[in-house]
Amino acid sequence: MKLNLKIWRQKGPNDKGSMVSYPIENIDGDMSFLEMLDILNDQLVEKGDDPVAFDHDCREGICGMCSLYINGEAHGPDRGITTCQLHMRKFNDGDTIYIEPWRAKAFPVIKDLMVDRSAFDRIMAAGGFVSVNTSGNTQDANAIPIPKDDADEAFNAATCIGCGACVASCVNSSAMLFVSAKVSQLALLPQGQIEAMDRVKNMVAVMDEEGFGNCSNTGACEVECPKEISLENIARMNREFLKASFVK
Predict the structure, then answer these.
(1) How many whole angstroms separate alpha carbon 35 and alpha carbon 66?
(2) H helix or E strand, kind and range, residue 114
(3) What confidence tens digit (pLDDT) does each residue in 168-182 have?
(4) What confidence category does residue 135 fall into, taking pLDDT thresholds of 50, 70 and 90?
(5) H helix or E strand, kind and range, residue 99
(6) Most CB atoms closer than 10 Å: which of 94, 194, 225, 242?
(7) What are the backbone angles phi and psi of residue 239, rounded to the nearest 5°?
(8) If you compute the radius of gyration of the chain from its CA atoms, what whole number of angstroms results?
(9) What digits encode the pLDDT tens for the residues 6-61?
């Protein structure tokens, strides 16, 4: 395939960015989107130009680092996948492809297509954990009976990889789906009950402090989420928060 790539280039957080066009040829449909960007960067380096900076790690749809806004969609035109799992057969010969970083106040651009998502880390540090007794008298987690429906829902919430697609696809740049997945994962399990009240209040407070917006109730986050995290988690988080608000 022969393609015309329009890529957001920005030298640093305080620099003014712009879209730059890059024609590219001989792209095979079986290539992943990131492999295509690797080929482009090889060509740029050979010409002495600065390669396009983009985040990536596992390239197996697990880490969530390969977060790109492609033709106006988080992770591109496919569903239930990350950018590294997107293949070029989803595009046609001669297509123009627009590639941008996440657009959110809480995710400032580092360079080009890379953004700083450390706001998610700070939300997790506020309550996304359980206190564990390491005195040698711990109870085997498998010995605690948990209803299968609760275990399944907790597991589904735990599949969130924190990529930020929910934030990027929300008109208010809300992190509600991410935070609710992390709250739900622990709220559904007995190990998470001890700190449940403080957890949801602290995580929501930090989410607001980081500059994420309110839920827009459009459901775009669930549609664009590569792990298809359910909106039901937001409802659960709201219930947990309301319950915690009545407890001093």
Answers:
(1) 12
(2) strand 114-115
(3) 999 999 999 999 999
(4) low
(5) strand 96-100
(6) 225
(7) -65, -45
(8) 20
(9) 999 999 999 999 999 999 999 999 999 999 999 999 999 999 999 999 999 999 99
Provide the pLDDT for residue 139.
Answer: 62
Strands 96-100 and 109-111, bridge-based pairing: unpaired
pTM over 0.85: yes
By residue count, the chain amounts to 248
CATH code, domain carrying 97: 3.10.20.30
Q: Is 229 helix (H, G, I), strand (E, B) or coil?
A: coil
The answer to whether residues 100 and 201 belong to one domain is no
The token pair at 134 is: 């390491």
Distance CA 245, CA 139 (A): 31
What residues contact 54, with CB distance under 8 A and at least 6 apart?
34, 37, 66, 68, 112, 113, 114
How many other C-beta atoms are found inside a 10 Å radius of the C-beta of residue 76? Answer: 24
